[in-house]
Design a protein that fits this description.
Growth Hormone, Chain: A; globular; single chain
């Protein structure tokens, strides 16, 4: 990319962020609307949960394949395809005649979201030089936080005044503007090396991740019966076969040589642990607010925005700092703060007030904002340019697998510990779950020391 194109990098970043912000908005809007969707369609909370779970399962299973396609066919082209799929499926979700159709359309919508999620870090990394990459990726994190923060309040208003179908229609004007803007300003970028698509690896990765994530997310509801356990074992076997196949192919979907980089391997490991921790907290805190403290859904949603709003403020600052002082210190400090925040979340009881929850969530947001931009910058900066699509896919897969595992872990701990804390009820079980989250975050803190060099960018040798 020449000097003239680099001069447009901030316009490119803004266009890409507008396109990728729809996913976070959509995710947080759907969580708020689920009770209304269940009421209107006449289904129970467990069943309506598949509106979200189908999205996460497909997203987590497909991201590796989508990242590989970006290296082959170009990041811009697939980003635009992702926007089109997301716009069309959003309109169809709003028109869905029943729950089955809505669940199916949400799965298709996840493919569009996955394309934008996998391509956006690759486009940003390709457009920005190493000394500005952390700042740009920090703004990407800020965009995600902004979308998550906007979702609850926007969704609440749309559901109250128009109905649940409106939450999907809001994506359409945003998506159209983003598509036209990206079409005009984002340059064509792809690997200069001739590449081939790994169909066998793609099928094995999708099947293995899908089976494993289904096992993790539905095991507790299924009572850990032998069919669900067998599915989990099958997922592990399929992923083992995937790794074996990838080692044999000259053009694999997942270049395992990337994991020879300490920064790449440890960075993805730390991100996985962080997102498990994050989604234990994000998943359980609304239940604590509504079931223990007896707040309404709108009150709980307002309190929950403390976390993404803090990330929104901190992430771009942390990204800019990581360009100046390096990644390791910021990532370590951010993860350590998250560990402390999870520990103090475990001290919440039945007498807590809104301020008690807000400052704890804000503390976790501070840690998250400090942690994510330098880790993402380090991971994406540790790979060669012709593997940026794969690296973005791995990073996005790590995030979504962590989200599913965090929700599943939170549910398992909550269900298993409620029988122990008969006197405290849900409050005691949630305290135990937050303690588990704190332990995982401490492990993330240790791994983060390996995840980034003390100075700015790890030069990959892959």
């Amino acid at each position: 990319m020449g000097e003239q194109q680099y001069a447009r990098k901030w316009h490119i970043l803004a266009a890409v962020l507008l396109g990728s912000i729809m996913g976070p908005i959509d995710a947080s809007i759907v969580y708020i609307a689920m009770p209304d969707i269940g009421r209107v369609l006449g289904v129970d909370p467990v069943t309506v949960g598949w509106v979200s779970m189908s999205y996460l399962l497909v997203l987590g299973s497909f991201l590796l394949s989508l990242g590989r396609l970006g290296d082959m066919f170009g990041f811009k082209r697939l980003f635009l395809v992702g926007l089109l799929i997301f716009i069309i499926t959003s309109a169809l979700c709003g028109l869905a005649p029943g729950l089955g159709a809505l669940i199916f359309l949400r799965a298709l919508q996840a493919i569009g979201a996955g394309l934008t999620m996998a391509m956006s870090p690759a486009i940003i990394t390709a457009c920005f030089p190493p000394q500005e990459r952390g700042r740009a990726l920090g703004m990407n994190g800020m965009s995600i936080a902004l979308g998550l923060a906007m979702g609850p309040s926007l969704g609440g208003m749309l559901v109250d005044f128009i109905g649940w179908r409106a939450i999907f229609y809001v994506n359409i004007p945003i998506g159209i503007i983003a598509y036209i803007w990206c079409l005009r300003v984002v340059p064509d970028m792809r690997s200069e090396k001739r590449q081939y698509f790994d169909w066998a690896g793609s099928l094995l990765a999708f099947s293995g991740l899908g089976a494993l994530l289904f096992f993790a997310s539905r095991g507790e509801a299924a009572g850990w019966s032998w069919p669900i356990v067998l599915l989990g074992v099958a997922g592990l076997v399929l992923l083992g076969a995937f790794i074996a196949v990838e080692k044999l192919l000259p053009e694999p979907m997942l270049d395992l040589k990337l994991f020879q980089s300490r920064v790449f391997s440890a960075g993805n490991g730390a991100s996985l642990l962080h997102f498990i921790t994050q989604y234990v907290i994000v998943f359980l805190t609304p239940f604590y607010l509504q079931q223990v403290l007896n707040y309404s859904a709108s009150q709980a949603g307002a309190i929950m925005t403390a976390f993404p709003l803090t990330v929104l403020v901190v992430a771009p600052v942390a990204g800019a700092l990581s360009d100046r002082i390096g990644h390791r210190g910021l990532a370590f400090a951010g993860s350590l703060i998250c560990s402390i925040a999870a520990l103090v979340m475990a001290s919440l009881n039945q007498q807590a007030g809104p301020a008690d929850v807000i400052w704890r969530l804000s503390l976790f947001g501070l840690g998250t904002g400090l942690f994510q931009p330098p880790i993402n910058s380090a991971v994406m900066g540790s790979v060669p340019k012709f593997r940026l699509g794969i690296a973005g896919g791995v990073l996005s897969t790590t995030r979504n697998v962590g989200m599913v595992l965090g929700i599943a872990l939170g549910g398992v701990v909550l269900a298993s510990r409620q029988a122990v804390h008969i006197d405290l009820g849900p409050s005691g079980a949630m305290q135990d779950a937050f303690l588990v989250a704190a332990i995982l975050s401490l492990l993330c803190t240790l791994v983060s020391l390996l995840a980034a060099p003390s100075r700015k960018i790890d030069k990959a040798t892959v």
